[in-house]
Description:
By secondary structure, the protein is of the alpha/beta class. It has helices at 7-18, 24-53, 59-91, 111-135, 142-180, 186-201, 221-233, 240-250, 272-278, 282-285, 300-313, 323-335, 339-345, 364-376, 395-398, 402-411, 423-433, and strands at 289-293, 318-322, 351-357, 382-387, 413-417. The chain starts with 6 loop residues before the first helix and ends with a helix.
Amino acid sequence: MARVQNPTTTTLGYALFATRWLQAPLYFGLVAAQGVYVYKFFKELWTLILMCVGGHATETYVMLAVLKLVDVVMIANLLIMVIVGGYETFVSRIGLQGHRDQPEWLSHVNSNVLKVKLATAIVGISSVHLLQMFVDVHHTSHHALLWGTVIHMAFIASAAILAYMSGPMVAHTDRAHADRSPAAPAHVTRPQEHERGDRQQEKPDPETPAATPALPRQPAPDADAEARIRAAALPRQPAPDADAEARVRAAGFPARKLLEDFDEQHPRGFDREAVARLGKADFVTARRNVVLVGPTGTGKTHLAVALGVRACQAGHRVLFATAAEWAARLADARTAGRLDAELTALDDHPLLIVDEVGYTPLDPATAGLLFQLVAHRYERASLIVTSDRPLGRWDEVFGPSAPALTDRLAHHADVVRLDGDSYRTRRATSAWAD
């Protein structure tokens, strides 16, 4: 018996259902957001290209920049999934069935499947963010790293719960669709039911192939996606020794000096424990400075270069120059109108070595340039400075800017004083006596 529908109820239902079109502008807004991410992607890519061409891109910077590009692409993919899948499910059918541009997942999309796919995409994005934190672990606080890991695990748990809950929901929906579907002809359905029942009663025969070939197992999507992310984001690195040697050659050391070759018996006094501790290169990670003070020929440059070599071996980029050479470099940058850009570019080197401070007189303008170098790197990156006079006498070199310069340099610094006669003079005197 046909059910008589109330015209008022029917009209109200159609009106309520028509309100789904109110969501259409929301999806156009997401399309605009997609355009924003396209702009952001090419802006980040252009910046990366400029840094690489200019020779200012460190390995860590390139890796983080590539991960940032991957992150932008994954969020853009998430937007596409929400735009296309959400519009298809909740607003109006797109009508791509059978079209060559139809996404694979669109043929079976529903609210439950869409939720799981969105949760999986969020887990992938969270994985990229966590990988960025691990790559830049030296500049990431333990608190941020802990909470990043906890939040990532929460996303994984949420996705697993959604996937587990969606199974029964999808099965229930399929059964409901099957119950509502028109009955198949008796001569087709019933023999198939009898045949299925007979197969269930029969014992499996290992020699008999299955009537329906089993679908090949696919790898877990999450694991496969994470493997692709790691493969794309972590390119193969050269051998550690070769990589360290390349950094040593690029540092511009006047000669290769090692801590093991330093003559500890020559200086009459210096803090051996402090030098041994600095040899671990942890001060570079902590963005601390090192000031080596002592008379000419006591081994300050030897120790500065040796600590620089240790920093290169620890994975840091280092740049060596005398104070006069640094002043000339910064003066050229100032003349070209790119002093700020030069100071920013030097941030790619976690350690700069400024040798022979005080050996040559500095005019006020040059002293101001070295002050800008120290002030720019304050609590941002490390410096090793060698000088033949203690910090209290740097006003003889830097003039009025000396107090401000030494205050920033010594705030987070290890000051090592070497006492003794010149090593070179002693060897020359010994050779003459012989």
